[in-house]
Amino acid sequence: MKTATAVIGAFITFLITMGVLFKTMHWPGAGPMIVLGASSLSLYVILVAAANITSYEKKGLIGFCNGVGAFGGMVLAVGLLFKIMHWPGAGPMIVISLPLVVIVSFVFMIGYLVMKEPIKLSPGTLFATICFGMLLYGTSIGGAPYSILINICDNAIKIEKNTELLNHQNHNTLLLNNTEANVKLFKSTSDLTNHIEKLKSELYAVTDGLPKEVADTISLYSINGKDNYDVPTHLMGIADPSNPIKVPGKEEYSAITLRKKIEEFNTFIKEMNSDIEVINTNEMIGYQGMESWEVGTFYHLPLAAVVLTLNQIQLEANVICNYVLTSKDNTSLKAENNEPEEEQ
Questions:
Q1: Where does residue 14 rank: exposed (0-12), middle (13-18), buried (19+ CB within 10 A)?
Q2: For a tag site, which of 9, 73, 116, 183 has the least CB within 10 Å?
Q3: Cα distance between residue 79 and residue 322, in whole Å
Q4: φ and ψ at 285, to 5 degrees?
Q5: 271 vs 275: CA distance, rounded Å
Q6: 56: helix, coil or strand?
Q7: Is the pTM above the cut of 0.90?
Q8: Predicted confidence (pLDDT) per residue in 203-248, tens digit
Q9: What angle do CA 149, 152, 153 make, to 5 degrees?
């Protein structure tokens, strides 16, 4: 039984370790390995507890502590899995199980001192300890404090509402001054903002596993995985910071595509008014030197921060559109309206 326990423990440890490594590096496949490893660990602790009980002559306190510890370990393994995968319900499981495991460990130490038996660290106990340590580390990868996430969400929602108001104002301005140039300007702005809306909807759908019709209407507040780093990284094609890509089948959601859309908008704006400051898509200075706009803007950010940035781009586009629509110095609009230039 000891050999079987050691072999199974080594396999589970390998799965969890590789899963956490893949998650740290944002490589695909991290989720399935962590799910399989943590699920197996929740059952493995029962096997370890049974093996530990049979290895001691005095089984009273040892049996009680192993039984309670196995229960706590089962719940803790599932709770850590839920925490890493950003599934609801992780908090209560961790709050219940972690203190229980700590108390049982303390009772173990007291029991060993009282019974004066040598401590026997079985291979199963060693592997289980390593697994729990790796899972605890996995929960720390990209885990933003909840208060910060809520603050980010608040700002994102405020910007979203301001963007809607400004877009409505731009539409009313277009109705009052319905020139060809204005129509093209409003359409260019709408193309960019609508593309970003589709991107946000896809991020919501993939993060929480929502149907498209639900993701199109849901608010960021309602998303469980606000702190999810992996979905934006993979979906937007920046898992490898040195080589941003378009994910096959998801090309329209890549950061590369978004940058192209912004640059098309910028080009159109510059043709109308070369003095306007357009949306920045230049390379940025990062920790390892110059980084592409895609990586510098979105890499290793939780979903809430990514949505905040996308909302800021939408607002900036509408601000530029509003400025051009209402600018008295817009020569393109004057020419189209046959308005004479103001005398100097």
A1: middle
A2: 116
A3: 49
A4: -85, 120
A5: 10
A6: coil
A7: no
A8: 999 998 999 999 999 989 899 888 888 889 989 999 888 889 999 9
A9: 85
